[in-house]
Amino acid sequence: MTRGAERPENPEQQVVLLVAGLAGLAVSTLGSAFGTMRGLLRRSDTAELAAEAEQDLIARGRLVLDQYASAPPAHLEVLARQVMARQAGDGV
What we know:
Elements: H1 11-41, H2 46-69, H3 75-90
């Protein structure tokens, strides 16, 4: 076996290697993210891009809250409320 495929001899060594691996992954991911951000900051439509990102995040947040917060209202009840609102608006 090569050195990279060997299992660590003790648990402490295994923890140190796992933490070092995670740190290396984080540094590489952050480097990539900074490169992407640097490219985005050079764009002339950065304000519009940020506004679109904000709207997208708000929409995603609503979807998540709707999905996990509560059960959706009964379909027939929603339809009945719409009919009652239309009738009240028409004066019927």
